[in-house]
């Protein structure tokens, strides 16, 4: 695990879906590091988040500070996936679980 060895803020989950298939194929395992808020993230990082505490999405994170919008963008070869945007004032409804720090991909 390199620099994350022994880190207690990590967990592993399975990816189901094609919205990030250019970088994380369907059914891959990803290692997630917990973050406290979107202020802890950098543009382009891959994150897992929830809008409803029941379903989770994995997307690239972008923070447009000028427009005060958070953008969660797919990285997919399937054009049916579209970015999900939230205004800063609506981010209280969104729970960012963490950033993807590694992916385990089977060939």
From TrEMBL:
<protein>
    <recommendedName>
        <fullName>Peptidase S24/S26A/S26B/S26C domain-containing protein</fullName>
    </recommendedName>
</protein>
<feature type="domain" description="Peptidase S24/S26A/S26B/S26C">
    <location>
        <begin position="7"/>
        <end position="101"/>
    </location>
</feature>
<dbReference type="InterPro" id="IPR015927">
    <property type="entry name" value="Peptidase_S24_S26A/B/C"/>
</dbReference>
<dbReference type="Pfam" id="PF00717">
    <property type="entry name" value="Peptidase_S24"/>
</dbReference>
<dbReference type="InterPro" id="IPR036286">
    <property type="entry name" value="LexA/Signal_pep-like_sf"/>
</dbReference>
């Amino acid at each position: 695990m390199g620099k994350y060895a022994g880190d207690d803020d990590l967990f592993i989950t399975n990816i189901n879906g094609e919205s990030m298939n250019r970088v994380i194929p369907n059914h891959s395992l990803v290692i997630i590091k917990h973050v406290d808020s979107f202020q802890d993230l950098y543009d382009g990082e891959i994150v897992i988040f929830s809008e409803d505490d029941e379903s989770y999405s994995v997307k690239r994170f972008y923070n447009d500070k000028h427009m005060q919008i958070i953008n969660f963008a797919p990285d997919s070869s399937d054009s049916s996936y579209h970015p999900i945007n939230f205004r800063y004032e609506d981010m209280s409804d969104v729970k960012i679980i963490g950033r993807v720090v590694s992916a385990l991909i089977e060939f």
